[in-house]
Design a protein that fits this description.
The chain contains 25 helices and 20 strands. The chain is of the alpha+beta class. It has a 6-stranded antiparallel sheet, covered by helices on one side. The chain has a 6-stranded antiparallel sheet with strand order 6-7-8-9-13-14. Helix 21 crosses helix 23. The longest helix has 23 residues.
Length: about 700
């Protein structure tokens, strides 16, 4: 895991001093010293940490992939001195910028939330980092059980989550905001342009908006291709290639050692998002995957699952589309076949501790074989659905704009999505009524209603789709706020606490903009946070995952797409098809852009069946039950019923398993992110051996569970 960390002290003093003791992050690279120091921690590449200075007290540090030149960085530094923070966030790539102007520090987050910033009070000042766990280590913070309950009950609701984290006292900077520190005090400021709450912003013409998406995607891919090519270190822990092995080529030997291929690779699932990125990368001038020379082909990796029960027709069709897309002289195609070891819920015992819990923990091991077959820099299509597709609540936005005729095609498509039935004729009217009700419901009223039903233990009655189709899912999303799929298994006390959070938010923020736009941003933030967890859980040494659809430039360009274009059936595939056509790629295979939700659900069901015994054992004495969030017996019963085919929300069970697994990793954690000259009493007790919490060895190293 890579992160940056620093702090702003209340008074000037020696560098790296906290009170009466010296504190340093372990394995850190100091960027600048003084009372407000900054470090880069972890295996950062040399080209991922860039610093420009205007004078000894004015500097800009950029961490990650940034397509700006050194001259552009200097211009951005001078603009930031005048308060124009947007200049620091408009370059291609995915990065975190830190500006130092005397005693004033500014740390920018991103629009999606894939590169978050955290902060916490410490030693009379404020410490900040791009990871929450190091700050919890620094302050010896306890576990915030209320936040974990909100994360399970309403994962897509900013009203319930607020700016909290799983650690007490550690706060998150919201997406689209920057953290400003001066003399130990902190302030959160937005760098997004202010929008009117009364009327919608002027919308671009569809062709102009699609041009913007194309330019942003091309620049995002070019920023990755323009960087130095990297290869796994042959002298590292993976060791040298032992030489020829019968039946194994160099790629297979490298994958067996756990290292990616040199250069750049890309996912090629046969879907629209990954296919667009792979074709754009292969079509740009230069050598896409080369370390040296020209003419190297981009490594395109397709994962196919031969063990999943159901969805075989979808899987075979997607594989054929991937092979058709890979019929390109600049693409080298590699197909990775997954067996039982690559099912969801497999390999849970080998996962590392991530910064936060997330549902992707149950599928991280499933994707490692695909990532090991990829390049040292690997492009993925994560986030495309969240930035391009229309959230169902955008139907209410159209009604607010008096564009009723644009609802005809989406509601008609919903009526056909689940196949012909006796109620298909009524679907358009049902969806229209739900959208009209949302458009006419004030924000505070909608959130307060959800809070009331949570307090009354009515989580299952707020449109929670348990195995329903597209119509049920759309109707369930036509609310200002609604519980997530795991809420039905939480205790009444946990739901009541989340309801109190929602009730307080309803009275605190009476105006919140348009429902569709707000729900879409919340869904993007949720996905970006889970993508960050996925990066940490499935991390392959010497490899970097790149998700261009989560870049600031791409997110802004996609937000400019008109709602009337977004809500049309197949809008994402149509937009990306236009992007590729403008880039010179027009020969796409039949069925390109078809949705593929069925294989994901089928894989979850198959993996649950295979791992149900271990999962039931995991919930024999769960830490979630110790914290008062669930009842172990209820969860065990739900796991067994879902494995037998009961219509239960599998994503909700995956969230419960992920959170329980993360808690156990946290309890078993050894060591700290910090070193000091005079250890605190708690750390001395750990070194001496303290009786474990709940009978689990190593629990004294973890943040305590408060409220249990």
């Amino acid at each position: 895991m890579r992160w940056l960390v620093g702090w702003s002290s209340a008074t000037a003093g020696p560098a790296a001093t906290g009170g009466s003791r010296t504190v340093l992050p372990v394995g850190a690279q100091l960027l600048w010293d003084g009372p407000d120091p900054l470090w880069a921690v972890g295996d950062w590449r040399p080209d991922e940490v860039r610093t420009v200075r205007a004078d000894p007290e004015t500097a800009l540090a950029v961490f990650g992939v940034c397509g700006a030149t050194d001259d552009q960085l200097r211009v951005g530094l001078f603009a930031a001195r005048g308060g124009a923070l947007r200049h620091l966030t408009a370059w291609p790539g995915s990065y975190t910028a830190v500006v130092r102007m005397g005693r004033r520090l500014t740390v920018t987050g991103d629009l999606a939330g894939a590169r978050p910033v955290f902060h916490t009070p410490w030693e009379g000042g404020t410490a900040f980092a791009t990871a929450a766990l190091p700050l919890a280590d620094l302050t010896e913070a306890g576990l915030d059980v209320g936040h974990l309950g909100a994360l399970l009950a309403c994962p897509d609701a900013p009203e319930a989550l607020g700016s909290g984290t799983p650690y007490e006292g550690v706060r998150r900077v919201p997406p689209g905001h920057a953290l400003v520190l001066r003399g130990g005090a902190h302030e959160i400021t937005s760098y997004e342009p202010a929008a009117s709450l009364a009327v919608a912003a002027p919308q671009l013409a569809p062709d102009q908006a699609i041009d913007g998406v194309r330019e942003a995607l091309v620049e995002a891919v070019r920023a990755r291709l323009a960087g130095p090519r990297h290869a796994p270190d042959p002298d590292g822990p993976d060791g040298l290639d032992p030489g020829p092995v019968p039946g194994m080529g160099p790629a297979e030997r490298r994958a067996a050692r756990g290292a990616p291929a040199p250069g750049i690779g890309a996912d090629l699932s046969g879907g629209s998002a990954s296919g667009t990125l792979a074709l754009l990368a292969a079509g740009l001038p230069g050598a896409p995957g080369a370390l040296t020379g020209h003419g190297e082909r981009l490594l395109a990796v397709t994962f196919t699952d031969h063990t999943t029960q159901g969805g075989r027709a979808h899987r075979d069709a997607e594989l054929e589309r991937a092979r058709a897309l890979a019929d390109n002289p600049r693409l080298h195609h590699r197909v990775v076949t997954g067996g039982e070891e690559a099912l969801p819920f497999a390999g849970l015992g080998t996962l590392p501790l991530t910064d936060e819990p997330g549902p992707s923990l149950v599928t991280a091991f499933r994707h490692r074989s695909r990532l090991l077959a990829g390049g040292a820099d690997h492009l993925t299509g994560h986030g495309a659905r969240q930035v391009l597709d229309a959230h169902p609540a955008r139907l209410a936005d159209l009604l607010l704009d008096r564009r009723r005729r644009h609802l005809l095609r989406p509601v008609t498509a919903l009526a056909r999505a689940d196949g012909p039935s006796a109620h298909s004729v009524l679907v358009p009217f049902t969806v229209y009524r739900a959208a009209r009700k949302l458009a006419r419901t004030p924000y505070g009223t909608g959130v307060a209603e959800t809070a009331r039903r949570l307090v009354e233990r009515g989580a299952g009655g707020i449109g929670d789709p348990a195995g329903g189709g597209a119509v049920d899912a759309s109707l369930a999303a036509l609310f200002w706020c609604r519980p997530g799929p795991a809420a039905r298994w939480l205790t009444g006390e946990a739901l009541a606490e989340v309801g109190m959070r929602l009730g307080a938010a309803a009275t605190r923020a009476p105006g919140a903009g348009r429902p569709g736009e707000r729900r879409a941003r919340a869904a993007l933030a949720r996905h970006a946070a889970d993508h960050r967890v996925f990066e940490q859980a499935a991390e392959v040494r010497s490899q970097r995952l790149h998700a261009p659809f989560l870049d600031n430039q791409v997110v802004l360009a996609c937000r400019a797409l008109p709602d009337t274009l977004r809500v049309q059936p197949g809008a994402r595939a149509a937009v990306l098809r236009s992007v590729l056509a403008q880039a010179g790629v027009r020969d796409l295979p039949p069925g390109w852009g078809a949705p593929a939700h069925l294989p994901h659900t089928a894989a979850l069901r198959t993996g649950l069946r295979a791992a149900v015994d271990g999962l039931v054992q995991l919930f024999d004495a769960p830490l979630l039950a110790d914290a008062g969030l669930v009842e172990a017996r209820v969860v065990r019963k739900a796991l067994c019923a879902a494995a037998e085919g009961a219509a239960l929300p599998l994503d909700g069970l995956a969230e419960l398993v992920s959170t329980e697994l993360w808690l156990r990793r946290l309890v078993l954690r050894r060591g700290s992110c910090w070193t000091d000259a005079a250890a605190t009493p708690r750390r001395r007790a750990v070194a001496a051996g303290v009786p474990p919490l709940n009978g689990v060895a190593g629990a004294a190293n973890a943040p305590r569970i408060s409220g249990s």
